[in-house]
Amino acid sequence: MGRLKGKIAIVTGSSSGIGKTTAEVFAREGATVVLVARRENRLSDLRAGIEANGGEAEYIVADLALRSECEKVVDDVIAKFGRIDILVNNAGIPDRHMPTSRTSDELWDSVIAVDLTSVFYLCRATLKHMEERGSGSIVNISSIGARGLAGAAYSSAKAGLLSLTRNIAIQYAGKNIRCNATLPGPTPTELNTPEALATFDPEMPAITARHFDLSVPECSTEDQANAILFFASDESKGLTGQCLTVDNGGTL
After folding, report:
1. For residues 68 and 239, what is the distance between their CA atoms, to the nearest angstrom?
2. Res 136: pLDDT
3. What is the pLDDT of residues 219-235, one digit of tens each?
4. Of 6, 12, 54, 55, nearest to 35 (Cα)?
5. Residue 183: what are its φ and ψ, rounded to 5°?
6. pLDDT tens digits for 85-104?
7. pLDDT tens, residue by residue, 122-139
8. 250, part of any domain
9. Where in this chain does the record put each Ketoreductase domain (predicted)?
10. Is 172 a catalytic residue?
11. How many distinct structural domains can be found in the chain?
């Protein structure tokens, strides 16, 4: 306990799934967590739950597909707290395993905007403040889909996150500003409920499944949050530009 004591941490996509659990874990570890997502009712409930357990949280409702809202999130946190110690870029939307041949322009644009471009906007806006303070940790949430094990748009966005992560790490190496990524494997969230899976492309999931060991158990959202916590905390202060797969060995 206390591994993030006194830290100011932004967690995007924190209204559900991995983001929600990460926010709860961070609060238990002493961080003041800024919750960011589109659904205010869920953010309000999460903040209340964190505070009921003795933690500290604020929330900002934002559509991260818009550059102006990404920049406003950073500006609002700086205005209120004066710094950002940790940025977790978790917000993302699925592409329902649509292959290249069946990916529409609209689907491609929306997935790239949220899953990759918003991370660029948030990192760019945050890094200047981290550089002024001479410290900071960014954790980007990619996916095993970055290896092509998803639809065309999602795989491309998540692969792009890995290169962005390394690019930032190279730029700030030795400056006490770190950027790392996790690659979650199958994890029970709202993105892969039976109802959600029923909307997926009927062909591509079977194709990608041939490249994944489906006999291994799914990871929990707690498993994913603990990996994110490791990169966010000083326990990993010697690591930057690293990409950690959290999938119980399914893609080994």
Report:
1. 31
2. 98
3. 999 999 999 999 999 99
4. 12
5. -120, 90
6. 999 999 999 999 999 999 99
7. 999 999 999 999 999 999
8. no
9. 7-187
10. no
11. 1
Assigned domain for 115 exists: yes
Q: Is 59's pLDDT higher than 90?
A: yes
Nearest CA among 9, 2, 8 for reference residue 28 = 2
Classify residue 34: in a domain, yes or no. Answer: yes
**Cβ count near 245 (within 10 Å):** 20
- Considering the domain boundaries, does residue 1 fall inside one? no
3-state secondary structure the chain: CCCCCCCEEEEECCCCHHHHHHHHHHHHCCCEEEEEECCHHHHHHHHHHHHHCCCEEEEEECCCCCHHHHHHHHHHHHHHHCCCCEEEECCCCCCCCCCHHHCCHHHHHHHHHHHHHHHHHHHHHHHHHHHHHCCEEEEEECCHHHHCCCCHHHHHHHHHHHHHHHHHHHHHCCCCEEEEEEEECCCCCHHHCHHHHCCCCCCHHHHHHCCCCCCCCCCCHHHHHHHHHHHHCHHHCCCCCCEEEECCCCCC
Choosing from 59, 121, 154, 172, which is the catalytic residue?
154
Which domain range does residue 189 map to? 8-244
Q: Report the CATH number that the domain containing residue 21 is assigned in CATH.
A: 3.40.50.720
